[in-house]
Amino acid sequence: MALLELKNLTRRFGALEAVKDVSLSIEAGEFFTLLGPSGCGKTTILRMIAGFDAPDEGEILLDGVSLAGVPPERRPLHTVFQSYALFPHMTVAGNVAFPLEMMKRPREEIRRRVAEALELVHLSDKAASFPHELSGGQKQRVALARGLVNKPRLLLLDEPLGALDAKLRVEMQSELIALQREVGITFVFVTHSQQEALALSHRIAVMRDGRIEQCDEPDKLYTQPANRFVADFIGKINLIDVEVIAASKLRLNLKAPGLGEIEAVDARPLRPGERGVLALRPELIRVHGHKESADLKNRFAGRIKGLLYLGDVTHYQIELADGRVIAALLPNAAPGRAKFHEVGDPVWICWRHDAGVFLRD
Amino acid sequence: MTNAASPASAHSQSAKRPTLWSAGKAFQAKWLVTLPPTLFLLAFFLAPALIVVGASFREPGEFGGLAPLENLAGLSLEAYRFLLGDVIYLEIFARSFLVAAATTLICIVLAYPLAWLIAKSPAKRRDLLVLLVILPFASNFLVRIYAWIMILGPANLLYTPVAVIVGMVYVHLPFMILPLYTNLEKHDPALLEAAQDLGASAWTRFWRITIPLSLPGLFSGAVLVFIPVLGMFAVPELLGGTGDLLIGNLIKEQFLDNRDWPLGAALSIILTLLVLALAGLAAWAARRGFAGTEAVS
Ligand SMILES: Nc1ncnc2c1ncn2[C@@H]1O[C@H](COP(=O)(O)OP(=O)(O)OP(=O)(O)O)[C@@H](O)[C@H]1O
Ligand SMILES: [Mg+2]
User: How many domains, chain B?
Assistant: First the structure.
């Protein structure tokens, strides 16, 4: 049985449906992420799980038991707030001790478990400091220690890294993964950063306007997006409008207006005339200075329109004959060479028939 | 740091470093701005205070005021000796501090729920409620006290210690509500949610989060009530009986009725010193007790 189950959750604010018929089941020990653009209802879902808000329809089950009517203070789960919400008048140790004091644990046990929790987040030397004496990353770690110290069934994290600068963010991401693995507590994590979601999660639910568009493992989301929105939201991608010409189990022939025929594969039974979009990751596109003899059918001539040299990789923008611009990503793997092509160079791009994913409209 | 970045940042640093000239300008500007209030305080606060100190060591004049001073040998500790010699003065001091403490406590108990209610009401209604709190100031103080005479008279409470306390609380309540409200209004609601999320019941949240965070507001309010009550003479005079005189009345009597300025001055000095000592003690205790709360409020 799943640890946490959301069944057909709906939440309305006046005329606005902030959460629409959301169903999810989250397993014990999972690092689960709700990902979506600002205002799509992520916080609203977390608040309903925590008990600060109640669904208009549907229910939330923890270990198979409905949480309806259980106030937040009685739910065996904690929240790490984006603003950290550390108690400013208590020391770091006082903050971390708070949930244990609420459980009326003996003083000796509290002392020991606070010390353990602070050690876990590498803050043992800050036990006597007050929150305003800490850096952003340290506050973040205190909030984590406070949320984890009495071993909740579930930890809800609402954009906990949002207030940190880029470098610290990456550091904290690694720490979060290690921490979650070490304590084995189920994390429900909210973010609008697809990079963060991919890096951290076992599974991700991509949301849009209160609905879940796709719920899958990171690599599945990346390589097999369910629709145009997910494909576009996760990572960089080329979207080419196409129409099905012929479809069989082994081959899918598509036509892109202005470009020509494209070969792909799709196991689904598709009918000629169906419209959709071919989603193609930039790193799956090859770029050559000359027309190679390899027998790739998907091959088009173009010209380098712009490039972004990032050291390890270079992003190219290639303008094709019909004026559309395709993004390609090349690793700068050859020794002694910074980049392969310059702006204005005529090039050929090609991709394998199984590189693109056909998405029905 | 990259090579490209360093010259730029070195430049911006030198631009920020104050030159002698700009430091001089800043210094001048600071003085220009602070000079008028400083002069005002020197002339109308420090000078009178020193005059009172001087007066407390003089002899009273025959028809009030001070006896003329021929030389320094004319200074005396007579006023202080007189005060310390009579236990009645100690009693009045003790009673005054008791009344001030009781008034402060009652004000806290009454003001806290009100301030909390105002802070929790929707932003639009808040201004209206604050206005209601300060509305009594719009009418004359004496008129309002006379109104209490009419209320307390029929209740057979006039000229009793209860009437004094009631009057004191009535006059000073806004001074407790306003700083408390200002403090409570700034509390981050996320802190209460966090406490609830971590298992705290409504009472626990109040005792462990709201109260400690409001200590600076409580402290300001207590100072604004306690000290003025000590010096207040109109309320005991109008509402209290003969046995309810406080230091304020005593001081007023020395200057206006008994024409013993040195005694009045000495009383004022002792009161001031006691209040300063108390305020110092409270500030010291507050600094230890508020750790962290100033960061938010
Ligand atoms: N208490 C409320 N009253 C009215 N509307 C609300 C309330 N809470 C949220 N909403 C609306 O519901 C929608 C979803 O809000 P929510 O806070 O869940 O978004 P989010 O996905 O967390 O966004 P963000 O990434 O910006 O935090 C928004 O349009 C928001 O304006
Ligand atoms: Mg949010």
Answer: 1
CB contact under 8 A, A79 and B194: yes
pLDDT in tens, B216-246: 999 999 999 999 999 899 899 999 888 888 9
Is the beta carbon of A33 within 6 A of some atom in ligand 1?
A: no
CATH number where B142 lies = 1.10.3720.10
Q: Which domain holds residue B160?
A: 87-296
Distance A39 CA to ligand 1 centre (A): 5
Is residue B8 one of the residues assigned to a domain? no
Q: Which ligand is nearest to the CA of A42?
A: 1
What is the C-alpha separation between A32 and A188, in angstroms, rounded? 5
Model confidence at A150: pLDDT above 50: yes
How many residues are recorded in chain A?
Answer: 361
**pLDDT mean over B30-44:** 90
Structure-block tokens of residue A90: 């208590």
Distance from CA of B193 to the nearest CA of A (A): 8
Would you call B236 helix, strand, or coil by DSSP? helix
* Measured distance CA(A328)–CA(A317) in Å, rounded: 6
Query: Rounded to whole angstroms, what are the CA distances from B205 to A213, A330, B120?
Result: 39, 56, 15
Q: Does B143 touch chain A (CB under 8 A)?
A: no
Q: Is B271 helix (H, G, I), strand (E, B) or coil?
A: helix
Is residue B105 classed as helix, strand or coil in its secondary structure? Answer: helix
* 3 state DSSP class of A48: helix
User: Which pTM was predicted?
Assistant: 0.82
Dihedral sign (CA A138, A142, A147, A149)? positive
CB B216 within 8 A of CB B286: yes
Closest CA to A185 of A152, A147, A222: A152
- Ligand 1 near A18 CB (within 6 A): yes
Q: Is the ipTM of this complex over 0.90?
A: no
Name the token pair of A237: 């991608």
B206 touches A: beta carbon within 8 Å: no
Which amino acid type is present at position A129? S
Q: Is B198–A81 a contact, with Cβ atoms under 8 angstroms apart?
A: no
Residue A26, phi then psi, degrees to nearest 5: -120, 130
Q: How far, in Å, CA of B69 to CA of A76, rounded?
A: 81
Contact residues, chain A, for B188 at CB < 8 Å: 83, 85
Is B123 a domain residue?
yes
- Distances from the Cα of A178 to the Cαs of A167, A172, A174, A202, in angstroms? 17, 10, 6, 13
Judging contacts by C-beta atoms under 8 Å, the chain A residues touching residue B193 are: 52, 72, 79, 81, 85
Q: What is the interface size between A and B, counted as CB pairs within 8 Å?
A: 71
CA–CA distance, B3 with B184 (Å, rounded to integer) = 51
Express each pLDDT in A100-146 by its tens digit: 999 999 999 999 999 999 998 899 999 999 999 999 889 999 999 99
Over range A224-247, report the average pLDDT: 93
User: Max Cα separation, chain B?
Assistant: 88
Cβ separation of A102 and B204 shorter than 8 Å?
Answer: yes
- The span from the CA of A20 to the CA of A11, in Å, is 7
Choose from A73, A103, A105, A139 for mutation: most chain B CBs within 10 A: A73
Q: Which domains does chain A have, with CATH numbers?
A: 4-232 (3.40.50.300), 236-360 (2.40.50.100)
Residue ranges of A 257-286 with Cβ closer than 8 A to chain B: none
Residues contacting A102, CB < 8 A, separation 6+ = A73, B198, B199, B200, B204
